[in-house]
């Protein structure tokens, strides 16, 4: 059966209390979408409130050198998909084999406390599906509690955008919290690459995470590999 992936994107377009724009880091969606599309997987997009997902302007600086992002920007149907994302209430987690939390600093505001996103991720996880994230997308994992009350990330090895990378990106004074430290405070075993901004991913069972925008493709490839291996054996949760 064909695997079904749920991409999670943001609705936020500004750093809180400022006029500084933010939004979805497009390549983190586009690169993963391209990987999943090549495997023939079905794909759906959801956001915390449904509707439009704004794009992070800084993610659009080099479209000519990023074929996947450029293809998205020039495809009216895909841009329309970002203008009309689904609301969590419209999502039945049983229909999905994996959830993929995209990033961009915007997600630091609307991912962590979304009851709808937490419900979806919890049910996919407890149904044997894959929970994955890239870059700031791991903020969406911070507060997910399982049915037994435990935090999904507690005791798990994972990665996400490092505080060193926030400093190098010159946004450490804009972000609302230190996501790396928040993860550690929740009992996660946080890991990062020795060098900033290089592709780095971590797989811990059904949890697959990537550190930064350059990790999106590799993160998706690891999710796809897990799903493909399952399809050759046990049936998929959403099949």
What percentage of residues falls in helices of 4 or more residues?
Answer: 25-40%
* Domains (count): 1
Choose one word for the global shape: globular
Give the helices and strands as they follow along the chain. Answer: EHEHHEHHEEHHEEEH
Strand content: 5-15%
CATH domain class name: Alpha Beta
- Multimerization state: single chain
The major beta sheet can be summarized as: 6 strands, mixed
Structural class: alpha/beta
- How far the N terminus sits from the C terminus, by CA atoms, comes to 6 Å
- The neighbouring-strand order within the major sheet is 2-1-3-4-8-7
Total helices: the number is 8
Using only CA atoms, what is the Rg?
A: 16 Å
Number of strands: 8
Give start-end ranges of low-pLDDT stretches: 235-239
CATH fold category name? Rossmann fold
Overall pLDDT level: 94
Could you give me the name of the CATH homologous superfamily? Class I glutamine amidotransferase (GATase) domain
| CATH-derived architecture | 3-Layer(aba) Sandwich
Can you tell me about this structure?
The chain is α/β, with parallel strands linked by helices. It is 31% helix and 13% strand. It has helices at 26-38, 67-73, 76-83, 107-110, 115-126, 163-168, 179-185, 216-231; strands at 4-8, 42-46, 98-101, 130-134, 157-158, 189-190, 201-204, 207-210. The strands form two sheets. The chain has a six-stranded mixed β-sheet with strand order 2-1-3-4-8-7, with helices on both faces. The chain has a two-stranded parallel sheet with strand order 5-6. Strand 1, helix 1 (26-38) and strand 2 (42-46) form a beta-alpha-beta unit. Helix 1 (26-38) packs across helix 2. The longest helix is centred in the last third of the chain and has 16 residues, at 216-231.
């Amino acid at each position: 059966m064909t695997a079904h992936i749920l991409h999670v994107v943001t609705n936020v377009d500004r750093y809180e209390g400022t006029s500084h724009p933010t939004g979805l880091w497009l390549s983190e969606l586009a690169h993963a979408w391209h990987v999943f599309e090549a495997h023939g997987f079905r794909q759906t997009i959801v956001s915390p409130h449904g509707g439009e997902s704004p794009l992070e302007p800084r993610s659009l600086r080099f479209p000519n050198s990023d074929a996947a992002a450029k293809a998205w920007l020039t495809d009216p149907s895909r841009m329309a998909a970002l203008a009309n994302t689904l609301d969590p209430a419209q999502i039945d987690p049983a229909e999905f084999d994996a959830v993929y939390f995209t990033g961009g600093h915007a997600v630091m505001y609307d991912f962590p406390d979304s009851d709808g996103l937490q419900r979806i991720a919890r049910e996919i996880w407890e149904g044997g599906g894959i929970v994955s994230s890239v870059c700031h997308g791991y903020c969406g994992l911070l507060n997910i509690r399982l049915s037994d009350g435990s935090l999904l990330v507690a005791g798990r090895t994972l990665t996400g955008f490092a505080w060193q990378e926030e400093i190098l990106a010159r946004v450490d004074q804009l972000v609302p919290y230190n996501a790396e430290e928040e993860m550690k405070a929740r009992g996660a075993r946080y890991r990062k690459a020795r060098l900033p901004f290089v592709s780095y991913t971590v797989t811990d069972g059904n949890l697959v995470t990537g550190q930064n925008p350059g990790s999106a493709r590799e993160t998706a490839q690891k999710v796809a590999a897990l799903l493909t291996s399952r399809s050759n054996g046990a049936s998929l949760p959403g099949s």
